[in-house]
Amino acid sequence: MKTTMTIAAASAALLLGAGAAPAHITLDPPEAAVGTTHKAVFRVPHGCAGAATSRLRIRIPEGVIGVKPMPKPGWELEKLHGTYAQPHDLYGTPVSEGVTEVAWSGDLPDDEYDEFALLAYLSSDLEPGTTLYFPVVQECRDGSTARWIEIPTAGHDAHDHATPAPGLDLTAGR
């Protein structure tokens, strides 16, 4: 019995040590087809070094248009609008501006996780076989900030960075 408890305690210590690296904000599902409407869910696994998350800002990459964020009870929602680098086709209608950033403000304790969702159209201008990155800034109650904004360069991937932006792998449309 003592041996089993010692092994369990050692295993728990190893797992806790392995989990000491900061978890990343992730995107689910991790892939979507170009030329389709996509529901993107951003998972926030923790706050900032023990502090509750108070605001989450997501920059919308070029080619992601018709953005409609999902309201969350208890959270304030803000949509920033801007001009696109080039016009995009949204179901037969050319659009040259739209939502370029979404922010939710509220309270997410460090020991809880939550999901923040938006619906958007992935323009047919986007390139299948590439990854589209959504830089995220996580602000916390103690004034600290986690910037999940690193975008891998050629020959690298998100695992090569300490604070990678969530990525969406683009596939060919239907």
Automatic annotation (TrEMBL):
Residues 155-174 are annotated as: Disordered. Keywords: Signal. Residues 24-170 form the YncI copper-binding domain. Residues 1-23 form the signal peptide. This is Uncharacterized protein YcnI. The keyword Secreted does not apply. The keyword Kinase does not apply. It comes from Pontibaca methylaminivorans. It comes from the Bacteria. The lineage of its organism: Bacteria, Pseudomonadati, Pseudomonadota, Alphaproteobacteria, Rhodobacterales.
